[in-house]
Amino acid sequence: MKTSLEITAEPSPQDLAFLGGSLTAFNDADVGASGRQSLAVFVRAERGVVVAGVSGYTAWGWLYVQWLWVDEKLRGKGVAAGMLDAAEQEAVARGCHGAWIDTFNPIAEKVYRRQGYQPFGTLTDFPTGRSRIFLQKKLSS
């Protein structure tokens, strides 16, 4: 088989879907189906405007929080904690035993630690001058 190497900053949606599907099939055959399911929690203001949210997924018994954002006016009022609690409760209902999240924001790290998350890894200078911290939490039913 003759092959060529392509580098692109604009991959096609079809190529990305093929790549994702192929990796999923490989992983399913290797360790079993992930049971991956999206999970989102939103806080809405008047007229349904999103003022805070969590987005991630559950897979292989874990909740991964990919994005967590709170509008500046609501920060420091426990909104992030409430959303994390809701996401964790849903993850437990889905059979999850753990959760993980990452951040390079020192304030967010403190919020996650207050919620019971503990660091398990660090990438220094990601971005330059900061460290990206990976945190995990054991979930109980």
Low-confidence stretches: none
Number of strand segments: 6
Helix-strand sequence = HEEEHEHEE
- Secondary structure class reads alpha+beta
Name the quaternary structure: single chain
Give the number of helices: 3
Helix content: 25-40%
Shape call = globular
**Average pLDDT number:** 97
Task: Give the termini separation.
Answer: 51 Å
Beta-strand share of residues: 25-35%
- Strand arrangement, major sheet: 1-2-3-4-6-5
Verbal overview:
- By secondary structure, this protein is of the alpha+beta class.
- Helices cover 30% and strands 34% of the residues.
- The chain contains 3 helices and 6 strands, in the order H-E-E-E-H-E-H-E-E.
- The chain has a 6-stranded mixed sheet with strand order 1-2-3-4-6-5, with helices on one face.
- The model has no long low-confidence stretch (mean pLDDT 97).
Question: Quick summary of this structure?
Answer:
With 141 residues, the protein is of the alpha+beta class.
Based on the model shown, name its key terms.
six-stranded mixed sheet, globular, 30% helix, 141 residues, 6 strands, alpha+beta
